[in-house]
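Deliverable D5.2: sample structural annotation.
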Amino acid sequence: MNKDIFGTAIKDFYNKKYTEDITVLADDFDDDHIPIPYLFRAYTEMPKIEQKALDLSYGKVLDVGSGAGSHSLFLQNEKKLDVTALDISDGAIQICKERGIKQAIVQDIFNHSSTTYDTILFLMNGSGIIGSLDRIDLFFTHIKTLLSKNGQVLIDSSDISYLFQDDDGSFWVDISAGYYGEMQYKLKYKNQESEQFDWLYIDYNTLQNAANTNGFISELIVEGENNDYLAKFTLAID
């Protein structure tokens, strides 16, 4: 994304200039909206999948796609963990720091290689940053270099196959068009609009198979009420 849509919106809300939400644009679906206050939610306001991920977090933590830092703040202040918030948004990381997060970095996860972590979090459809299914081996290969020997990856996603179901329950997708969870979006906020970017929703079985192929043991931790789930990955013992 060439424009810092999330960063601008997050800064506006933090500085009490909140007037509208982020609009999500997709070619084949109606516009959706991301309420900016939701990015500042407390633990008690989070869905059970996020709460479970935070409950399971331990050790040195990397919060990928940290946004306004709500997950990082809970882990740092309530669980007293060593947390690094990481996001590609300059504005988001600026607000993370202003909210008191001690370690916050502007960087793409695929360029991050400074140390290893005991817990790596990918929340709020964390699989989205993979982009497309053909990048999933790259994702696991890179994450392996960031994970401590006894570390864990906690990632959530959704199986959006229900969007392609007919009224009779039958499932129809165009196989030639690629994996059904590969989406392309634009974000709009006030007078700014981002370039189109790839975002991946992935069903658990597909994610599990890719993880196992790349040397991880997978576990389905909890399922939500909207075809979403939390998965855990640990390195397989040689």
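Annotation notes: The chain has a mean pLDDT of 93. The chain has one domain: 5-235.
The annotation will be released with the project's public dataset once the embargo ends.
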